[in-house]
Design brief:
- This protein is an alpha+beta fold and about 160 residues long.
- Helices cover about 20% and strands about 50% of the residues.
- The protein has a single domain (about 5-160), classed as 3-Layer(aba) Sandwich (Protein Transport Mog1p, Chain A).
- The protein has helices at about 55-60, 65-75, 145-160; strands at about 5-10, 15-20, 20-25, 35-40, 45-50, 80-95, 95-110, 115-130, 135-145.
- The strands form two sheets. A seven-stranded antiparallel beta sheet has the order 3-4-5-9-8-7-6, with helices on both faces.
- The longest helix is centred in the middle third of the chain and has 13 residues, at about 65-75.
Length: about 160
């Protein structure tokens, strides 16, 4: 899955993304907060969210607690079973240390007569940027099949985030 990348830039920050993705820009986005979805042809999605750093700091205190909150939201979702944290690492994002978390779980898809379990991995990178007064989160819920390719794309996208 070798990709050609282009730069997405808005509100003074940017990220590189694979050219074969479709970008969905939330119409409620503002300079201070919002999100963008990068849709891959096979329905995989990678998200970029941003918001007010002061609010995040008041609510969570640190980037570590902010990232932990995101993991807990996935873990406590009704359709998530067998949640397990795989790794908790640092990742250099521009001039910041971002937190890169990976977790695996089974997603329960309820059908008419059955419950189907789909193995997934949650990937997230959290960054607090004092220079732009914003936090940034790059995240994805990825299928286990073809993981190494998507993990590589995810990490490449996160590392290209320019927050200020």
């Amino acid at each position: 899955m070798e990709q050609d990348y282009e730069r997405f830039s808005v509100y003074g920050f940017s990220i590189d993304y694979p050219k074969d993705t479709r970008i969905e820009f939330n119409p409620k986005n503002r300079r201070g907060e919002g999100d963008v979805v990068f849709h891959f042809p096979d329905k995989v999605k990678i998200f970029l969210s941003w918001g007010d750093l002061e609010k995040a700091t008041k609510t969570f205190g640190t980037v570590e607690k902010h990232a932990g909150h995101g993991l807990n939201r996935v873990k406590k979702a009704k359709n998530v079973k067998n949640f397990e944290l795989i790794s908790h690492d640092s990742l250099r994002i521009a001039s910041h240390q971002g937190l890169y978390n990976r977790a695996k779980f089974e997603e329960v898809a309820v059908g008419f007569l059955s419950k189907r379990m789909s193995p997934r991995e949650a990937h997230s990178v959290h960054v607090h940027c004092a220079e732009s007064s914003r936090y940034f989160v790059v995240y994805a819920l990825l299928p286990i099949s073809g993981m190494t390719d998507y993990e590589r794309v995810f990490v490449k996208m996160a590392k290209t985030l320019k927050c200020h």
